[in-house]
């Protein structure tokens, strides 16, 4: 597909300011007149953002914009698709599948006309999805996420829906309404299958169910409201490194990190005063250390922007500067990629030396098996392109003491090239990566990059 390039945008740099979990580094200007709102990443590591019609009157065609090579000094801007919106309306959700397909939703303010649409990598509607690429559920649609073959959304208000991402058929019953939970966006932790939502600056969470059995989910509040009313464009993101929900809070220009206990840690987004106006959504890039935050109100230069934040507490094990073959960013870049997605390679065979280990080669099936059998999980994430992985597979993983330590685990074998998006969602930014999870999907520990066999044994036996 030949994408339509937007006019060239220049980078606007400002002085960094100190934050807590995250530190502001710069702002990327978006070509006018577009206002970015929701954000996601593609399997190849590009960033996709939706836009908003902030005109007081009149309809307009709003693009979904792809930012190609977002970590480069001069990222490219392309239009993925366009959809028509009335004044003061725009997309209410965005999700990108692991095959590079795009899902967008519209909350028109009217039950009958709100919709979800699926676009192929070539920017055309997918006719197999719903009714020729579109679903009109008869309810307002607020927020989207994709995990594997499931599309997750909420209907107004607080009504959780899980559907087949290919056909739009519901997986289970739509959860009942909760008029106190005016949720505007959703995000899933793919390991625990907990689903987070945001409303009035507060985090909510669905627990107790799975994406295959959504009828068992129960909704509860995770943090307190910090706004009197919900705001269009409120976004939420799950940070797999810290296991926390992240909410950009527009009023105080702050990034709120909320852990499972509901404790809130703020990080200031402090560019110059004219830079940071009305932040909306956040997305983590493939390096695991850089976050993009959309801002839907134009600065004094007439352009809206995306604020770039750097993680401050980076584990040394995540540093791949001396070993680029171990970096997810490098691995994702060498896949068979277009500007809007990738074609995943066929699964690689398990190395002969490790054949005795009863590997589960499907990540989601492995987590489901562990949940059903109440066993902990050992997830081995690797790549053919990493020399360190090859060494590990020949001399460490097949050893008798490692095999003994694995007794009682569900061992999962995961080639990150088969699903780079899932790698990112699980917090795998460097290979080899071996993580231990509880049967419920909570990560308890990880070794990655350059580690010794004893480090692995300590992880498996503690």
SSE layout and pairing:
Elements: E1 4-5, E2 11-12, E3 22-29, E4 36-41, E5 47-53, E6 60-68, E7 76-85, E8 89-96, E9 102-106, E10 115-119, E11 134-135, E12 141-147, E13 150-155, E14 159-164, E15 185-188, E16 195-199, E17 202-207, E18 218-221, E19 237-239, E20 244-249, E21 254-258, E22 264-268, E23 279-284, E24 290-295, E25 305-311, H1 328-333, E26 336-338, E27 341-343, H2 363-373, E28 377-382, H3 387-395, H4 400-405, E29 410-415, H5 420-425, E30 433-437, E31 443-448, H6 453-461
Task: Give structural notes.
- This protein has 462 residues and is mainly β.
- The chain has helices spanning 328-333, 363-373, 387-395, 400-405, 420-425, 453-461, and strands at 4-5, 11-12, 22-29, 36-41, 47-53, 60-68, 76-85, 89-96, 102-106, 115-119, 134-135, 141-147, 150-155, 159-164, 185-188, 195-199, 202-207, 218-221, 237-239, 244-249, 254-258, 264-268, 279-284, 290-295, 305-311, 336-338, 341-343, 377-382, 410-415, 433-437, 443-448.
- The chain folds into 2 domains: 4-314, 6 Propeller (Neuraminidase); 318-461, Glutaredoxin, CATH 3.40.30.10.
- 10% of the residues lie in helices and 37% in strands.
- The radius of gyration is 21 Å and the shape is globular.
